[in-house]
Amino acid sequence: MGDSAGNDKLVRDFLLLWERRDTEQVVAACTEDAVWHFRPLKPIVGRDAIRAFAQKYADIPGGPYEIRLQVATHRVVMNERTDHVTHDGKSVTLATCGVFEIEDGQIKAWRDYFDTSGLNAT
User: Fold this and answer.
1) What is the CATH number of the domain that holds 86?
2) C-alpha atoms less than 13 angstroms from C-alpha of 122 in its C-beta half-sphere
3) Deepest of 56, 74, 85, 97, by most Cβ within 10 A of its Cβ?
4) Domain tally, the chain
5) What is the CA 97 to chain-centroid distance, rounded?
6) What count of other Cβ atoms lies within 10 Å of the Cβ of residue 94?
7) What is the per-residue pLDDT across 35-74, written as a single tens digit (0 to 9) for each?
8) Which residue range forms the structural domain that includes residue 96?
9) Gap between the terminal Cα atoms of the chain
10) What's the rounded Cα separation, in Å, for the pair 51 and 56?
């Protein structure tokens, strides 16, 4: 089991990797059977599927992902973020809540809950 400070750093570093589109390091930070679930999309299960998903975004600017509040325990990290992303070629801002389950120093599950009204903003 990890400690809360280590898990806090793991998730902060992981979001920076995702923001930089460092696919291989993003994948390496996850367990073999990790589950990503960006609601309302379907869950992405396993490293191969995570890699394929992440590679789709390799040329699309990411972030910044501004963590507003983050709490960490020995097995769960939760944060409230403002995500600045590119959607359909436009910059959008999404209010996001993320839940990360940690196992042996890696991300076992990542679930994000979005306020999708930002996708429809003009």
Assistant:
1) 3.10.450.50
2) 0
3) 85
4) 1
5) 10
6) 19
7) 999 888 899 999 999 999 999 988 888 789 999 999 999 9
8) 4-120
9) 45
10) 9
Q: Return the residue matching tokens 């309302």.
A: 40
The sheet with strand 76-87 has its strands ordered as: 44-45, 30-39, 106-114, 90-103, 76-87, 65-72
**Model-level pTM?**
0.91
Place of tokens 């996708």: 119
C-alpha 23 chain-centroid distance: 12
Q: Which two tokens stand for residue 108?
A: 């076992």
12: Cβ contacts below 8 Å, ≥ 6 apart: 67, 70
As a whole number of angstroms, the distance between CA 96 and CA 60 comes to 19
Judge residue 50's burial from the number of C-beta atoms within 10 Å of its C-beta, 0-12 exposed, 13-18 middle, 19 or more buried.
Answer: buried
